[in-house]
Amino acid sequence: MTDKRQRWDIFCRIVDNYGDIGVCWRLARQLAHEYALDVRLWVDALPVAQRLLPALDTQLAEQILDGVTIAHWSPDFQFDRIADVVIEAFACELPEPYINDMAAQPPVWINLEYLSAEAWVEEFHLQPSPHPRLALKKTFFFPGFTENTGGLLRERHLMKERDAAQAGSSTTFSAMASPANALRVSLFAYPQAHITGLFNAMANGDRPVVCLIPESSLLAPVSQFFDTETLQPGDHYSQGALSVHILPFLRQTEYDQLLWSCDLNFVRGEDSWIRAIWAGRPFVWQPYIQSEDTHLVKLEAFLQRYLPPLGTAAADVWATFHRQWAQGQLAADSWPRLAHALPAIQQHASQQSQALAAQDDLAAKLVIFVRNFQ
Ligand code: TRH
Asked: Tens digit of pLDDT for each residue in 79-94?
């Protein structure tokens, strides 16, 4: 029997960090699970992907994981067929032989862009770009926060799963011992973050803080703070009101559960940022650091979009904390002020996650676009 499912090829080149593969993997899995598509994900750096997907065998040229074919995009790239839909993630540049063969039987070719809350995204979303040499066109697809963009990645049952996990108290991480009135905080940030400022403020605060840190490049400044050479998963350090637990780097589904179980999540980049929004809990986002402070422009665009319905005092505290955190600084009173504003921010985070989840998600919008493509 031949497989008549529509074939989608997603090309992912891992520039640095985990966001490229984080986004591509979530999208690939959702398209395969929710739309029964035949999805093949081409990835250049399998060892990086393996950190999010421990079941991945980095020695295999091709394997099926969770309903998705994962193929190694190696320097001697070989392919057997052109897909019906080709997603070039984050302008990663498709292999030349693949593009040449596309001309014979043009697929729907989509360039999936990075997420931004900036206003120009609506204008550039769905703009076509003809190939200079071949009879092919690719379409720019911009994720975003409004109906006129490509939407945000969100699995169909995500909110229900989150609600169920938050209603029960039995997720893996809420089981971790913490004092009854402690604030549970997850911390994922770039190493430029002002860890010393944050930890000193937390240690001197009047409420206990349990800080859960998955293993990443952030462990360097954390170990400096505790004056220890190396930190490993399982390590635990305290100072004043602050107690820090080092976790292993979690598989992606477990990371979601960690966010759901915390009172406040520090996140970064693109994918963890959106997952923090879906957690419906207060968060602090550190944008991916770019030259000429472009990341600060992105931060302002997001603050403006996300904040308006939040009462002014809490909004100011939240925005100020974000601006300082993104610039690697933290004033002495920023943490106590944020901690104090958390109940108001919690209410807002919960409303915003509901409001944003009422829009179509990225995978749904891609599928609709392909269906109507001419
Ligand atoms: O790793 P990042 O900094 O990725 C960045 C951004 O995506 C940025 O936009 C891009 O330009 C740059 O990479 C190249 O942050 P991000 O986007 O949050 O990706 C982290 C992924 O790792 C996300 O899918 C969540 C996942 N993760 C786990 O699976 N387990 C963990 O323990 C942690 C901390 C993260």
From this structure: 999 999 999 999 999 9
Q: What Rg, from alpha-carbon coordinates, does the chain have?
A: 21
Q: Which atom of ligand 1 is the closest one to the Cα of 247?
A: 32
349 pLDDT more than 90: yes
CA of residue 267 to ligand 1 center, whole Å = 9
161 is catalytic: no
How many CA atoms, within 13 angstroms, populate the side-chain half-sphere of residue 13? 13
Q: In this structure, which residue's CA is closest to atom 30 in ligand 1?
A: 250
Task: Decide: 241 and 203 in contact? Cβ < 8 Å.
Answer: yes
**Which domains are seen in the chain, by residue range?**
7-152+360-373 (3.40.50), 158-358 (3.40.50.2000)
Q: Is 355 exposed, middle or buried (0-12, 13-18, 19+ CB in 10 A)?
A: exposed
Query: Which residue in 206, 241, 225, 186 sits closest to 339, CA to CA?
Result: 206
Instruction: Report in angstroms the alpha-carbon separations of 306 from 301, 317, 318, 321, 350.
Output: 9, 14, 11, 15, 12
Distance separating alpha carbons of residues 274 and 194, to the nearest angstrom: 22
> Is the predicted pLDDT of residue 172 greater than 80, yes or no?
no
Q: Indicate the pTM of the whole model.
A: 0.96
Catalytic one among 113, 118, 270, 271?
A: 270
Other C-beta atoms within 10 Å of 371: how many?
9
Strand ordering across the sheet containing 68-72: 62-65, 68-72, 38-43, 7-12, 85-89, 108-112, 137-141, 128-130
CA 310/CA 230 separation, integer angstroms = 41
- 262 and 185 Cβ atoms separated by less than 8 Å: yes
Cα 188 from chain centroid (whole Å): 11
- Please say if 292 is a catalytic residue: no
Q: How far is the CA of 140 from the centre of ligand 1 (A)?
A: 22
Q: Determine which one of 20, 118, 271, 361 is catalytic.
A: 20
| Residues within a 6 A CB radius of ligand 1 | 15-20, 22, 52, 114, 188, 214, 216, 249-250, 252, 255, 268-272, 288
Whether the CB-CB separation of 269 and 193 falls below 8 Å is answered with: no
Q: Mean pLDDT across the stretch 119-124?
A: 97
Task: Assign 241 to helix, strand or coil.
Answer: coil
